[in-house]
Amino acid sequence: LCPLCRGSFEVDFDDETYLLGGTFRISLRRKQLTEIPKIPHALRRRIISLDLGENNLRTVTSTSFDGMTNLSYLNLSWSISHETALNDTCPIASDAFSRLSGLKELILSSNPIRVLHKDMFKGLSKLKSLSLFNIWVDALPDGIFDPLLDLVELRLCDNKITSVPAGIFRNLGKLSTLHFCHNKITELCSGFSQGLKTLKHLS
Length: 203
Description:
Low-confidence stretches: 1-10, 12-20
Strand content: 5-15%
Mean pLDDT: 87
Structural class: mainly beta
Shape: globular
Radius of gyration: 17 Å
Distance between the termini: 42 Å
Number of helices: 1
Largest sheet: 9 strands, mixed
């Protein structure tokens, strides 16, 4: 257990480098959390991986990940309480991830998100993989993917999306894999593939 966190959660160490001031990984999976724990700021910059999957979070705030400047992996799958589905607002703040400039993989799948903020992925220019399958959305705001210049894989399966705005992928020049199956799209517009210069796998 992390000596500075009073035994509140388990820590999986990266080659036991914690005591030497190195980086480490935290797993808070299946802890029945209703909010993200307040990790001491002295530790936040040393976290490279954070797994919050399968919890019961009510919200993800603008400050939930403050100070985690070295975070490269964040898993929030199955982590948002289904009680939030009673609200019309997104349970994730529009700038919750904006300061995670080093993030490379973000998993938001299987959550009742319902509405995506246009600026939700602002600042994530190094992101390689984004999982958004089964998040209950029926629309994609124009420009939402524009900041993701390094994105290689995008998962949008199992949603309720009925249409795709022309040019929605215009800045995804490195995208090679796009999963779009099991939505409610009947026809793709002529500008669907704009910007997809390296796409190899489409489903």
